[in-house]
Specification:
The chain is of the alpha+beta class. The chain has two domains: 85 residues, no CATH class; 238 residues, no CATH class. Helix content is 33%, strand content 19%. The protein has ten helices and 13 strands. Strand 4 and strand 5 form a beta hairpin. It is globular and about 70 Å long. The protein starts with 6 loop residues before the first helix and ends in a 12-residue tail after the last strand.
Amino acid sequence: MAGGIEVADVFRGHGPGLRAARGAHLDRDQRRVMGAIEACRTAALGGHVRRCADCGHTAIAYNSCRNRHCPKCQGAARAAWVAARRAELLPVPYFHVVFTLPAPVGAIAFQNKAAVYAILFRAAAETLRVIAADPRHLGAEIGGVAVLHSWGQAMQHHPHVHCIVPGGGLSPDRTRWITCPSGFFLSVKVLGRLFRRLFLERLAADFANGGLRFFGDLAPLAEPRAFATHCAALRRIDWVVYAKPPFGGPEQVLAYLGRYTHRVAIANSRLVAMTDDAVSFLWKDYRQEGRRKVMTLEPAEFMRRFLLHVLPSGFHRIRHFGFLANSHRAARLALCRQLLARPAHPQQGERDTEPDDRRCAPSWRHGPEPDTCPCCGSLLLIRSTLPRAPPFATPAHP
């Protein structure tokens, strides 16, 4: 099988075998994601029959699952989110800063996703705000957008946060805009040291409050002395913080946000082949300057890696901080534009955090999309509605 392969094809073909062989290791959220991806745009979710009023051509449009982990359901959610962010862009350079957890912490994060991912968000945002507020660096109140990714190119667990930050901020008395030096935001070495300290402090606090659990090879860390020793070793290694050069302009910022905010572990476009015993996909080997390669995995291993990145239900993977935080974003942005002597853009909705699985796309995404007849070009009209398939029915591929 080659060409037009989708992640859904892998789960439809090999998901039942994974459930039978490793069902005890799949949690409720992972099972829900598997079922959603398998049923997406099939008769299992129902749909609509559209018929051309001129030539009589008929087409069936099945409903999408709208799950935020489904590679096919992110386009509409991404477009709506990026459109809302357009009104919030400031006429200044924007920087991209990445905070990455070391592998030993990543292992703890995998067993405590909600707790450790939340710590990662808070530590990254506070690190940027504290260093930026220091007069020795920028001396300003900054703001930004943070997006959680938990995967690398080979879909292994690799938690990190991408932060998109305007190149400057408000002065402490909020009477002027302070611009960062040309092409430079903040020292990554300074950011890395503070990020390490803030993260480990919060991790220790969660441990003391009983908020962390350890299983398998990490089970010994449940003992306080072993956990303290483990954290002490983490303080002696460098934590990677990476800052890219500023974007070329607002449109580049929007394009970048569109690519990163609603990305899933692997896009359908990266799949190149699937057989009964193998799945092949493209990946970039950054140890060889981003050279493109093809990786082949057994279907069970491919699905296991994909499911590593299922987020806890209700967990928001897109967050705002600083002067872009929800509570005061509109007022702070208006002040920033006033100080930058630029007219304000029309205000749009305040909602910025990512909806949960039940509402990850606009309401129309669940129904038919406007379309034209492939035969004569006329508008296809809805003629009937297809009900959902009975529960537990095997999803039919359209």
